[in-house]
Write a structure and sequence with these properties.
3-stranded mixed beta sheet, binds zinc ion, GMP Synthetase, Chain A, domain 3, alpha/beta, 22% strand, 21% helix, elongated, 2 domains, 4-stranded mixed beta sheet
Length: 165
Amino acid sequence: MTSTNPIYSKSEVYKVLEQVRDPEIPVLSISDMGIIRDVLIDEKKINVEIMPTYSGCPAMDTIAADIENTLHVNGYADVHVETVLTPAWSSDFISDEGRLKLREFGIAPPQKNAKRGSLFHKEAVTCPQCGSGHTELVSQFGSTACKALYKCEDCLEPFDYFKCV
Ligand SMILES: [Zn+2]
C-alpha cells in the first residue's frame, strides 16, 4: 500500500501565517501588514515570498525566522522564505482589519494613497484616542523610525502615526 501524502493547501498555509506577528507592532499579523506576496507550494516544499517594509526597520530577519518556526511547529518541514523587492511594499497594503487594530492599539493608521514618505496630507491625521482631527505633528520620529509623533489638540494625548510609504 502506498502512502498518500496530502498536498498542502495554500489557504491552510495562509491561515498558519496569520499567527506570525509583526515584531514592531505585535497587534498586527504579517497578513494584516500585507507583506506576504505569495505562497508557492511544490509538493511538500513551501516557499513564502515576503516584501520588505520600511528599509529602516531591522525586522525582516525576525519575520523570516518567525515564518519558518511557525510553519515548522504546524507540521510543515520544508520551508523557505524569500524576500522579494519588487513590487515594493506600500503602507496601502495594510488591510482594513489591520488599520482597525492599529487604531485600537493607539497608533493612527497610515492614510491611503498618500504621497510616499510624506507627512503632509490633505486629510488630517485623526487621533486614535478620541477621533479628533485637530492634531499636530510633534516630531518626524516616534517610538520607531516607521512612526511620527503627533499630539491631539483636543484630548492632549500624544500618539504615534504610522508613516506612509
Ligand atoms: Zn484626541
